[in-house]
Structure formats: C-alpha cells, structure tokens
Design a protein that fits this description.
Layout: E1 15-17, E2 24-29, E3 32-37, H1 38-41, E4 52-54, H2 55-70, H3 76-82, E5 83-90, E6 93-98, E7 105-107, E8 112-113
Parallel strand pairs: 1-5
Antiparallel strand pairs: 2-3, 3-4, 5-6, 6-7, 7-8
C-alpha cells in the first residue's frame, strides 16, 4: 500500500513560481496536501517567497469554473489532464491555464475571473 507521500500529487510539475521560475513541490501537512516553491523550501533556496497553496483549494477553484461554464465538476484524472499550468505570484494571487478554455482563471484578493 502506498503512503500519502508516495502518491503522485495531482498538480505535480504544473505549478510554477512567478518570482524564481521554479516548480512547486507537494508535501503533506496535518493530513492535507500543500504545494510550496521547491527553490524556497530547499536548503540555500534561491526564492524569497514562501507561498503555500492547499490542493483542495485549487481543486475547488478549478471545479467552480467547470460548474459555472458546463454545470459539472472534474474527477481527478480529468483535472490532471485539463490543468496546463498554475502560475503563482502570492498566496492569493495566481493564474490557472486550462486546456478547455482560452481565458485563464485569474484569482486575486480583489478580483476573481472564473
């Protein structure tokens, strides 16, 4: 049986840091999967922004787009295929590019475009 850490993360290699260009990596924290910039989290890291995103929050944001546009949510395999890239500037400032839509999801503290 696989441990939670050994399971491939849903957004593996899809989340990018806008500050340093690094990939985010996943970790389990208090039973929840989070993503952090790998360059920040590494020893002598070259990124100065500690941004942690919860996987479930990203799933909810993406599913909101599909619910609004098509009246349905994605299962895990569909989500893995449909998410092209997530570009993160801050904890509550990111852009999600999806294969099914020309326009990105833009998420920020003052503006949400689903």
């Amino acid at each position: 049986m696989k441990s939670e850490e050994s399971v491939v993360a849903l957004f593996s290699k899809k989340i990018k840091c806008a500050h340093c260009g690094g990939n985010f990596k996943s970790k389990m924290q208090r039973g929840k999967r989070i993503y952090l910039c790998s360059r920040y989290d590494a020893r002598n890291g070259s990124c100065n922004k500690r941004v942690a995103l919860f996987e479930q929050f990203l799933i909810d944001v993406i599913n909101k787009r599909y619910e609004i546009k098509w009246g349905r949510v994605l299962d895990e395999d569909e989500m893995r295929d449909k998410v092209v890239e997530i570009n993160v500037e801050e904890k509550n400032v990111f852009r999600i590019r999806l294969a099914d839509f020309e326009e990105d999801i833009i998420y920020s503290e003052n503006k949400y475009v689903f």
